[in-house]
Sequence to fold (270 residues):
Amino acid sequence: MRRNGAVAAAGDVLDAGDQIAYATAASPAEEPDVAVLHADADVVVVDKPAGLVVQHASSWPGRTFLARLATRFPPVADAERLEPVHRLDRSTSGVLLLARHAAATTRWSQAFAASAVEKCYLALVQGVPTADVWHIDAAIGPAIGATARARRATYPAGAPGAQPASTWVEVVERLPAHALVRLRPRTGRTHQLRVHLAAAGHPIVGDPLYGATDAAFLAWVAARRAEEPLPAGSPPRTLLHAESLAGLGWRWSAPPPPDFVAALDARRRH
Fold:
């Protein structure tokens, strides 16, 4: 949505005479398709491409895929729509689980809450870690004083407004100036992997928020929403991929997509 020609923020207060422009959500026929890894009467599991939004109500028109997926696998029983049981950021690719009815949503949500679901991610990070395996145990909350409202930060345990967060990190491959790491989050906080890695001194390659200043991030967001050329040097996407998800007797996996592999190969050569 745009207000008087500029991108509108969620908290904007309208004035008399303001001109509002918005794009309607794409129809299922216009939405992109995704690869389906598994489907049954309870769930649908997909390999989400980077650039697509998981939320039903999105401020990125045409970049979700849920309506089109529901035409192939309609919700059943008492459900009104397919429900994502967990979240992947827009720029993150990989395994995503959606429930087809309320009982499946509850069952999987309880499994996530009980840490009975293991999620593994691959990330290409800046710098070369010295440890092979390490644990990041740092609470996460809103970044105080940040002009980019989406930014979050790490805090000591028990800090007001921060939630406990735990991530295991394993180095898969060391490169000249980067590393490929596998991540196993034990909690599911907003931006957890991105925040933890940035706090450890190894932000994910291509992360426009945790690998840049607030001003650079806000310029990047404005360019993306207006579908204008990105500012010089801006990354195409955060190189984070949901490699696998396992729980309740199931395991699904998806290999990294071509853009991830190409970025990894490029950094192997330099």
Notes: The chain has five helices and 15 strands. The longest strand covers residues 118-126. Residues 28-114 form a domain with the Pseudouridine synthase fold (CATH 3.30.2350.10).
